[in-house]
Amino acid sequence: MNHPRKVLKVGVVGAGSMGRNHTRVAVANPLVECKGIFDPNEKTGVAVADEYSCYYYDNYDEMLAAVDAVIIAAPTTLHHHLAKTALLAGKHCLIEKPVTVEISEAEELKKIAEEKGLVVVIGHVERYNPVYPELKKILEDKEVLSIKASRLSYNTNRANDVDVVLDLMIHDLDNVNCLVSEPLNVISAVGGAFHSSNLDYATALLKTESGIVCDITASKVSQTKHRSLQISCSNCFISVDFLRKEIELNRHAQGSYVSDSSEVKYKQEQLVERVFVPNVEPLMAEHVDFANAILNDTPVRVSIQDGIEALRLANEVQKQCQAN
To answer: Are 130 and 194 in contact (CB under 8 A)?
Structure first.
C-alpha cells in the first residue's frame, strides 16, 4: 500500500526582502505547503502573497491556526514575541538570525521548545552554503592556525533595526565558532558608524585557548560585495568564496627543476587544488533541513543553541566596539 506523503504546512511571518525570499523558497519546496504570509502592512503582505499565489493573513493567530510551523523573517526586535507566541501554540519555528535581541529571550524560547518537543532552526544561512560542509570535511585532519573572515557589502538600507555586527558579522562568528570546535574569546573589536547611528563597519579579533587566531571584518559601506574565509593550516592554505561557491587549497612544494618534452625547464613551487562544490541554493537547503527535522526527526544543522552562542559572541564584539 502506498502511504500518503507527509507535507508540512508552513506560514511566513514578514513580507520584507527576507520574507519575500522565504516565501519564494517555501512555495517551491516539495516537502511543504506554504499556506500564506502574515505582515501587519497589508499592502506589502498582499503584494508578496499575490506574487507567489498564496494567502495573505492580516491576523497572526489566524495564520498560526492553519499551519504546523512558521518561518519568522520579521525585524529582530519582534523575534521573541512572534516565536514565543508560535511555540506556545505548538508550532515549530525557523527564526531568521539573529535569534533575538537579548540572550535571555533566546534562552526562554529554547526552554519552551524543549518542554513542548518542538523544532527550532536559526537562519544562519551560510551554514547551508554547499561550500560549508565541504570545508568541514577538509578541516577534519587539518591543524588550523588562523582564520580570516571578510563579509563586505554596500547596502545601507538593509536590516537597519540592527547594526553590522548583528546583521552581517554574526554569520562569520557562527561559521568560525563551529569550525574551531573550542570556545572563542573576543580579544578586541573596533567599528564605526558612517551612514547611520548604528555600526556600519566592524573588525573583531578573537582567539581560542589553544591559540587559533580569528580576524573577522564586516561592512555595509564597502564598494564591493565580498564573502570569504582564508584559513591558514600547518600544511596548507585554504581560500573559500561563499558567493562563487569555491574552495581552493594551496600547498608549498619544494620541487626540483624538471623538463617537459620541449626541454623547457621549470620548477613547481606550489600545488593548487580546487574542490568540487555542488550547486545548491543555501536558503532551500535551510528549508529542507527544517522540514526534515519535523517530518523525519532528523537533527537540525543550526540549532537554537548555535544561535545563542553566535549572539553571545556578537554582543561581546558590540561591547568592545563601544569601549573603543
So the answer is: no
What HEC string does 220-241 produce? Answer: CEEEEEEEEEEEEECCCEEEEE
Exposure b/e, 2-34, CB count within 10 A at least 16 = b: eeeeeebebbbbbbbebbbebbbbbbebebbeb
Order of strands, edge to edge, in the sheet holding 270-275? 184-192, 201-208, 213-219, 144-154, 221-233, 237-241, 246-252, 270-275
Q: List phi, psi (to 5°) of 144.
A: -80, 130
Sign of the CA dihedral with 21 first, then 27, 33, and 37 last: positive
**pLDDT tens digit at each of 324 positions of the chain:** 444 567 899 999 999 999 999 999 999 999 999 999 999 999 999 999 999 999 999 999 999 999 999 999 999 999 999 999 999 999 999 999 999 999 999 999 999 999 999 999 999 999 999 999 999 999 999 999 999 999 999 875 665 678 999 999 999 999 999 999 899 999 999 999 887 788 999 999 999 999 999 999 999 998 889 999 999 999 999 999 999 999 999 987 655 555 555 565 555 556 777 888 888 999 999 999 999 999 999 999 999 999 999 999 999 999 999 887
Query: CB neighbours (10 Å) of residue 184?
Result: 21
Is the full-model pTM beyond 0.85?
A: yes
